[in-house]
Amino acid sequence: MRRIAKYDFPVSGVRRFLEPGPIVLVSSQCKGERNIMTLGWHVVLEFTPSLIGLMISSANHSFGMIRASGECVVNLPTTALTDIVVGIGNTSGAEIDKFAHFGLTAEQASAVAAPLIAECHAAFECRLHDDVLVDTYNFFIFEVVKAHVAPRPKHPQTLHYTGDGVFMVAGKTISRKSLFRPGML
Amino acid sequence: MRRIAKYDFPVSGVRRFLEPGPIVLVSSQCKGERNIMTLGWHVVLEFTPSLIGLMISSANHSFGMIRASGECVVNLPTTALTDIVVGIGNTSGAEIDKFAHFGLTAEQASAVAAPLIAECHAAFECRLHDDVLVDTYNFFIFEVVKAHVAPRPKHPQTLHYTGDGVFMVAGKTISRKSLFRPGML
Fold first, then answer.
1. Do B73 and B117 form a contact (C-beta atoms < 8 A)?
2. Domain with A165 in it
3. Looking at the domain assignment, is residue A1 inside a domain?
4. Distance (Å) from the C-alpha of residue A118 to the closest C-alpha of chain B?
5. What is the pLDDT of residues B159-179, one digit of tens each?
């Protein structure tokens, strides 16, 4: 599988990749153990600081690791990884090392201990910002502290989960920039 | 513009439409006034009760109306409404009646006072469930109490905002159902 070279990207701009609603792969590390989970329930909350919310069900093996470490990396896979995305979502880190099992490469992050996934288009290093809703809704508010993005394609072919085993694949892009007021882009 | 007939849909199933991350139109009503805003910052939080989170910037005229009424309707537009979606996001309900200005039809909801938008593919009636993060993050947790969905197409051509005036349009769908464990769909 192809490892994708990524470059620094402004953390205030991660909405470009997350607001369209793709499935992401969340990698974590805790006490020497590493893991990956799939996640579709995420939301952008603020540009600066760069805040995102992740609903991580406590049924996931990753839940305890992310809670204890207060860190994770949100990685953006494309259709090149479709079957691996499904495989990651249908196995448990309690039983297998998902990096090894799925042939993914763990890369050293800059600001957190959790690894980046080299085969993904983008990777956002996250540090826990607020856990006020973790007990009640399994909802973590993270700050994206470092962003890595491949320079092209500008709009990667992401996967968008609809339930029942079906994904919508990102289609064409259209611009309506000329219809926007300058402050509203 | 075409009004779209919609039928009752299980509220526990709204993730099919919201998890892929489309731009939605949020309609509200308060003290006889009605309004619509565009929103891309939303997240599914739970199947049952059917909970969703909406980050509604307090800069929006709708913010006060939704907070005071504790209700809204999340409407799902398709590419047939692209220019109207942009128009709604670039005007203020403090200045115009957006239903009248954009030629949209307000339909009576079942469980809330806020109107449905007849020209949208789906409409989810929402009642405020938890406002604990409204002061700190403008983040509202709503329960979807009633869902209305057009029977076809099964996967509507939704709009997914990437910033900078550019939308990704929903592309083809692919199934990997055979690779899922039964409880993981």
1. yes
2. 7-184
3. no
4. 23
5. 999 999 999 999 999 999 999
